[in-house]
Amino acid sequence: MTETEAAPRTIGRVAVLGSGTMGAQIAALIAERGVECDLFDLTTDLVEDAKIRLMSMRPSVLDDHFVLERIRAASLHDDLEYLADADWVVEAIVEKPEPKLELWRRAAEHVRRDSLLSTNTSGIPIARIAEALPKGMRERFMGTHFFNPPRYLRLLEIIPTKETTSEAVEAISEFGVGVLGKGIVTARDVPGFITNRIGCFYFLAAMRAADELGLSPEEVDAVSGTLMGRSNSATYRTIDLVGVDILLDICDNTRAAVPSEQEKRAFEPPDYLREMRRRNWLGNKSGQGFYKRERREGQSRITTLNTLEMRYLERNADISSLASLTSIGNMGQRLRRLIALEDRAGKFAWRLLSQFLAFSAAKVGEVADDIVSIDRAMRWGFNWEMGPFETWDALGVGETVERMRRDCITVPKWVQSIAGTGGGFYQVEDGMSMCATPSGKYAEFSQLG
């Protein structure tokens, strides 16, 4: 074994570069799982401030503040020699290429030859960041995309480059599953990876459908939350949680990177998102986004943004047709009833789901190798009950593809073939779990997760 092929060590200490929102929470998760961690920022005072913020975050990121003693504060200017102690170095600084490249050039002078290396990014090409490293280090470098809040969202999206070894990916995966309790999905190093490519499309499609049909953010959230098997935060509350500015950055970065003009148009955000950023209406972190909480006469109340007038109004999401659906326990039956509604709620649900499912099918083979990875990424990363292909099976592939055809929505030929035979994306053959592939055949997959 050559020096550059040294096997990765067992991960007993981690260094996190950057003590911002994600970096601090990643460090907290690692420390809470009993692993010593070095948390770096420009000064140790900034790290200590981040540790104080961790104690008051909601939802809580720590059960016991004592675990913060496992986090050693370190300066990016004075303490880079600490990197020699780390078995895994994960960088989580600002989501811009040049600062990441510059930091990795400096860090490369201090990391061990057997340490695992990764960047936490939501969409910057991993191979581009890897260019900052000496060639011998690139085989141990990959993307590790955590989801906010990392304590509660199960997904860890791993993005290897063409130079990353399978042994390095396996080492991070084993630590992610066995120590951090993550569900691992391997994505390709393409714009947006899996979750942000498909997820960003989903949120933009939801906003376009809402604007076209005249639904308010609260009305959309009433339809697109738990009723559709999504998280309680649904659509607009999720955007407020993530941050309007973050969503815009993902949209802009993805649109600049995809080659298709049609897909570029799909990632064009509505003008009011940019206006919200201009006004600093970024969501939860700025106190107002699509929702605004304020106190009047000693009472706390929440108002909703009217995006046409750019002013906040009293909430009103009384969609009577939804009441008949909430008691339906079977998700497939509930979704089928929902998209059959003739009112704005039903039209919205169908318009959103039909575009989302067709787009997801078109990305198989580009963002991930198989439909299972896409379904797991969307379930674990967004806390959904079902991914797109599981949803499609629940709706009925044949019926929905025919309705998409009438709506002039393009569906890949391999999906048309499944619909034509009355099949589904998942099936069981001789006791084995099988998933459909774009080749027209079914492949076995593990039900784990």
Description of the structure:
The structure is a single chain. The protein has 449 residues and is α/β, with parallel strands linked by helices. It has two domains: 184 residues, 3-Layer(aba) Sandwich (Rossmann fold); 250 residues, N-(1-d-carboxylethyl)-l-norvaline Dehydrogenase, domain 2, CATH 1.10.1040. It contains 17 helices and 14 strands. The strands form three sheets. Strands 3-2-1-4-5-6-7-8 form an eight-stranded mixed β-sheet, with helices on both faces. It starts with 12 loop residues before the first strand and ends in a 5-residue tail after the last strand. The N terminus is likely disordered.
List keywords for this structure.
449 residues, three-stranded antiparallel sheet, Rossmann fold, globular, eight-stranded mixed sheet, 2 domains, alpha/beta, 41% helix, N-(1-d-carboxylethyl)-l-norvaline Dehydrogenase, domain 2, 14 strands
Give the overall shape.
globular
Q: Gyration radius, to the nearest Å?
A: 23 Å
Q: Gap between N and C termini, in Å?
A: 35 Å
User: What is the total number of structural domains?
Assistant: 2
* Name of the top-level CATH class of the largest domain: Mainly Alpha
Q: Quick one: biggest sheet? A: 8 strands, mixed
Which CATH architecture of the largest domain?
Orthogonal Bundle
Which percent range describes the beta-strand content? 15-25%
Structural class comes to alpha/beta
Q: How many strands in all?
A: 14
Helix content: 40-55%
Number of helical regions:
17
Short description:
By secondary structure, this protein is α/β, with parallel strands linked by helices. It has 17 helices and 14 strands. It has two domains: 3-186, Rossmann fold (3-Layer(aba) Sandwich), CATH 3.40.50.720; 195-444, Orthogonal Bundle (N-(1-d-carboxylethyl)-l-norvaline Dehydrogenase, domain 2), CATH 1.10.1040.
